[in-house]
Amino acid sequence: MTNADIPYMISDALMGISDNPLIILLLINIVLLIVGIFMDMTPAVLIFTPIFLPIAQELGMDPVHFGIMMVANLCIGLLTPPVGSALFVGCSISGVKIQHLIKPLLPFYAALLIALMMITYIPQISLFIPQLLGLM
Which residue intervals define the domain TRAP C4-dicarboxylate transport system permease DctM subunit in the entry (predicted)? Predict the structure, then answer.
């Protein structure tokens, strides 16, 4: 990926869509949510961190904040059908059919998305504990 300058090409494409950092972060969130639905977390982090971290740093985002945002996105994806592996594991353990579980979970998905937006756009939420412990 580095030899082919893929992170640079994606960065240029995202920056070409908008100069507004809020829009670019929203686009990154959407991509990571979709990736989280279809891909397991570890390969997604390994593939997409070198692509999106330079963009986030170019926007002035702290790498720790970006990492927390990325993990939150991918965790929400793990709980989201059609592939959400964590949801299927929970359903198989409890014996509940996934069709019966999706509708009651909608308010929780809404809460997760609101929390994700707060994590993304209010960096103090993510960075409070590292700053409190003197790690930053």
Answer: 1-125
